[in-house]
Specification:
By secondary structure, the protein is α+β, with helices and mostly antiparallel strands. Helices cover 38% and strands 15% of the residues. 40% of the residues are buried. The structure holds calcium ion. This is C-type lectin domain-containing protein.
């Protein structure tokens, strides 16, 4: 149990250790959230391995209550948690594209995932199993790569790791209004540029100028229809006759995902499996 707790602490440190990218307060909020998720996942995994199925099920329920009782987000509806990586799946992760020593894959081009569309959290977990995460698009070059993939593969849409900061710890003044200043890449922990301006150095606005209500994105449109928040960022391929553009979308919608290497998760598996080749 002590070893498991140490692993959790290591995982949380690795997953969230980007002090250069986030200011301390937001980082603390994200750490608390990641810690809750990682701890609950570890507890659930330990329970699954050591107890009978009924006991494990009860433990899962208890862990889930702990998460949802501490400001768990709308993404975690259903009691699901952020997964930890698996060593074998990391060593054998699909490698479709490489940029600067960093690998990517498209879920629908992997035979075992070809027919799978996932909601946002499951999409991240599909990637995380392989020491990757849903793609974080921090640069215009990376976005151009995504546009190229969607166009050439004729994909209607994909999930990214983009997430609206609308959970506990996000009610800070500098993140308001949240639709403009409250977006971040959950895979890398990097904050997005203001959503109502072309990001510095990009030369074009990646967010769509239109959507369901013909408003510029992000617009949280679905909330006005059925009170579901559009808390997750997907790239849509001309769904609104708008080209290949970013949209805020309800996290329950199911899509393929582009995964990219997660250095913290790769470091975590390397640290816990000394002889592994990743
Ligand atoms: Ca929208």
């Amino acid at each position: 149990m002590i070893r498991q707790l140490l692993l959790v602490v290591l995982a949380v440190t690795l997953v969230t250790g980007r002090p250069d990218k986030l200011d301390a307060e937001l980082k603390a909020a994200m750490e608390a959230k990641a810690f809750m998720e990682a701890k609950a996942a570890m507890e659930a995994k330990a329970a699954m391995e050591t107890k009978a199925a009924m006991e494990a099920k009860a433990a899962m329920g208890k862990s889930n209550d702990q998460v949802s009782g501490k400001g768990g987000s709308d993404v975690n509806d259903g009691g699901r948690l952020l997964s930890l990586p698996e060593a074998d799946a990391c060593a054998q992760r699909p490698k479709h594209w490489e940029r600067n020593g960093h690998w990517y894959f498209l879920s629908t081009n992997v035979s075992s995932y070809a027919d799978i569309k996932s909601d946002w959290l499951d999409a991240r977990n599909l990637c995380r199993k392989h020491c990757m995460d849903a793609i974080s698009i921090e640069t215009v070059e990376e976005n151009d790569m995504v546009l190229d993939i969607l166009e050439k593969q004729k994909l209607p849409y994909i999930w990214t790791s983009g997430r609206l900061c609308n959970f506990k710890g996000c009610d800070r003044e500098d993140l308001q209004p949240v639709l403009i200043n409250g977006w971040f890449w959950s895979g890398s922990g990097v904050k997005l540029a203001k959503t109502n301006e072309t990001p510095a150095g990009w030369g074009y606005q990646p967010w769509s100028a239109t959507g369901h209500f013909k408003r510029a994105q992000p617009d949280n449109a679905e909330f006005e229809i059925n009170e579901t928040k559009e808390s997750c960022l997907g790239v849509l391929n001309n769904v609104y006759k708008d080209g290949i553009k970013w949209h805020d979308i309800g996290c329950y919608h199911t899509k393929a995902v582009i995964c990219e290497d997660s250095p913290p998760l790769l470091q975590y598996i390397t640290a816990t499996n000394p002889n592994i080749k990743l």
